[in-house]
Amino acid sequence: MRKIHICHITTVHKDGDVRIFHKMCCSLAKDASFEVSCIVPNVENRTVENVRIVSFRSEIENRRKRISEAGKKALSTALKLKADIYHLHDPELLRIALKLKKKTNSVVIFDSHEDVPQQILDKYWIPTYQRRLISWAFSKYQRFVCARIDGVISVTPIICQKFMTYQKNVELVANFPDISELEDYEKSAFGPTICYVGGIFKTRGIIELVKAIEQIEVTLLLAGTFESEELEANVRSLPGWRKVEFYGHVGRNDIIQLLKKSEIGIVTLHPTSSYVEAYPIKMFEYMAMKNAVLASDFPIWRSIVEGADCGKSNGY
After folding, report:
1. Hey, which residues does 108 pair with through a beta bridge?
2. Largest CB tally within 10 Å, which of 52, 81, 155, 225?
3. Domain range summary for the chain, segments of one domain joined by +
4. Rounded distance, CA 232 to CA 234, Å?
5. Do domains 4-172 and 179-314 have the same CATH topology?
């Protein structure tokens, strides 16, 4: 029997992304009725856990040109694979969604990991007077494209409800951790230790966090990639940085080891519209690894933390 070929595509996530590669690609590849490919830039072509990783080179520094070039190369690579289903994971890939529909008879799905129009309103590096216009324009563009493809997947009920106003095939796939990979680990914490794992952004509270640890006897285990060299230099210049053990981007197994060594997991994000109603996967991972949680005081987050009696929610 012919296998159904499913091709996941990303131009901004890494080849080991937890949601895309581990939860979706690897899970599908366990079923013998599926052939699974994952298109991702700037890595080695190889097969991992029955998932064929297919890459292309895209190293242009200019952001706008990089997005355009990566989209074209992702489209060209995708067409060569002749998949039955194309699963797009980045808003930048909406530009190729209708081209895939036009050039193939395949199913095309968009996976909206965030509420992008809301997220744009919180981009501090975009001039304030431009944010509403850009958000409105992207919302219209997203609506135009997503109404004409085969379906949409998203991560929260609120985002799904927005897509349901113009797309009938919308599914919720919440971004919860895989408990099975965490439940067999025992704690090995040493001393007063806290951790933060994930993208290191200004809006995720990194400056406030490093300033706070200057005033207490604690070690911060920090893993992730800074959103810019400027932010990294700023954070490294803070007095509290001497209490930070910085690991940079690490793999899944190393993340688990860091969680084992910590006592408190930090998820103190700024109250932006895209964070307030999100399900923070790192919070659930901290909980699964028996870390107490210090979280932002958002209603959904507060109900989770207080309901599980596993930590403290605190406002800015």
Report:
1. 86
2. 155
3. 4-172, 179-314
4. 5
5. yes
pLDDT at 60 over 70: no
CATH topology of domain 4-172: Rossmann fold (3.40.50)
pLDDT of residue 268: 95
pLDDT at residue 72, as a whole number:
93
What would be the CATH architecture of the domain defined by 179-314? 3-Layer(aba) Sandwich (3.40)
With 80 as the cut, is the pLDDT of residue 67 above it? no
pLDDT at 234: 98
Query: What are the pLDDT digits (tens) for 171-225?
Result: 999 988 877 777 666 666 567 899 999 999 999 999 999 999 999 999 999 999 9
